[in-house]
Design a protein that fits this description.
The chain is α/β, with parallel strands linked by helices. The protein has two domains: 96 residues, no CATH class; 278 residues, Rossmann fold (3-Layer(aba) Sandwich). The protein contains twelve helices and 14 strands.
């Protein structure tokens, strides 16, 4: 288990308390060098902030070391995951990540049930045994597709912002370690699910020759996205840094596949009596999915949440949340390349962010572009890109 004093990742509630407008004049900023290491010694005068293209005066830049004593909040969301091998990778990555969460940090676990997203605990918990109990349910609980009709709000145990429990220390950590070992040693098929058909094109999987079918599919994805927005709203009142990590491989990811964009310009043979071909369907899907992405991005930024994704198969195929995460200052990790190793070690950097604050003459009514950079050369700056 990583200790807080070793990695200096965390931010106290006192730093983020205040009027709602404060969230519009501050950003969590992750700075890395060329090797991917965290840079933690930048000073306020080494940052530059532009809002809507205008340079804003920086009032404060708290370093990770200066904010090392307070807890952070982590939400793990498991959307449907297709294919037993990808399911196994996601479950392993999730448990491995939880074994590395520092003492005092809070975790809330959400998973897709038979017809909607369900919380597996009443609120943010510090009891590691409860994390292990929730993760142990996933193989039998999580479907492979967005079946049913999503409810408008989070189901299961719901979410209570005031919920608090007590840490269970070493026994809780041991429960996570035992679960991880059980998953790692599980017999073939332990993660449930079926083998996905290989070589099937996205347009064929989604039946893009049938616009009515695709419109119905999009409606399902839209409802699911709105429930996720509701989750972001529910955790918005929790102080400190908030991270939402979404594991998925389902229809929402398929509808975000790059092949959809390419299909918009393809020529297809039209058959008599059809209701529009794949190119027309792709154009509508691309437009509507872009709206969903924008809505979710805006919600995450307004609610002060950094999104992360464990989905997709590679750098250019990152899934629905993967296409959003960078705009909130988060990262996308492919499911197809040992995410338990890549993602699990990320705990050392995910929360190691500066709190950069600036002053404004007045706040715009809607989102505007935000650019955070540094004058120090050869560094990579990750922050939300609008506010």
């Amino acid at each position: 288990m990583f200790h807080r004093w070793c990695i200096g990742l965390f931010l106290g509630a006192s730093l983020v308390a205040g009027q709602p407008s404060q969230a519009r004049t501050q950003a969590w900023v992750l700075v890395m060098d060329g090797r991917g290491g965290v840079v933690g010694d930048l000073k306020a005068d080494e940052f530059r902030v532009k809002v809507d293209g205008k340079v804003r005066p920086i009032t404060q830049a708290k370093t990770p070391a200066q904010t090392a004593d307070a807890a952070q909040s982590w939400v793990l969301v498991f959307e449907p995951i297709r294919d037993l091998n990808y399911r196994a990778s996601a479950f392993l990555a999730g448990v491995d990540f939880l074994t590395k969460v520092p003492d005092g940090d809070r975790v809330f676990i959400v998973a897709r049930g038979k017809d909607s997203l369900e919380s597996l605990m009443p609120g943010f918990s510090v009891r590691r045994g409860a994390w292990a109990e929730a993760m142990a349910k996933l193989p039998d609980m999580l479907p492979e597709s967005l079946v049913g009709i999503s409810k408008a709000t989070l189901q299961g145990a719901g979410f209570q912002a005031a919920f608090a429990d007590a840490t269970d220390g070493a026994p809780g950590q041991e429960a996570l370690n035992v679960l991880l070992a059980r998953f790692q040693a599980g017999a073939l098929g332990w993660a449930k699910g079926t083998n996905d058909l290989r070589g099937v094109k996205v347009l064929d999987r989604l039946n893009f020759d049938n616009p009515m079918f695709v419109r119905g599919l999009f409606s399902t994805v839209e409802r699911e996205s709105k429930v996720l927005e509701a989750v972001l709203d529910q955790i918005a009142t929790v102080p400190g840094q908030k991270h939402v990590i979404v594991f998925s491989r389902c229809e929402s990811d398929d509808l975000s596949h790059p092949e959809i964009t390419r299909a918009m310009t393809k020529k297809f043979v039209r058959e008599k009596g059809d209701a529009g071909g794949p190119a027309e369907t792709a154009t509508v899907v691309h437009r509507d999915m872009s709206i969903l992405r924008t809505d979710l991005q805006n919600k995450a930024v307004v609610d002060g949440v950094t999104l992360y994704s464990v989905a997709g198969s590679g750098q250019n195929v990152t899934g629905f949340i993967g296409s959003i995460a960078p705009f909130t200052g988060g990262l996308a990790f492919p499911l197809g390349s040992n995410p338990d190793a890549q993602f699990g070690q990320g705990i050392q950097v995910f929360g190691s962010r500066y709190l950069v604050q600036w002053s404004e003459d007045g706040l715009p009514s809607g989102p505007v572009a935000l650019e955070v950079s540094t004058t120090r050369k050869d560094l990579r700056v990750m922050a939300q890109t609008f506010r």
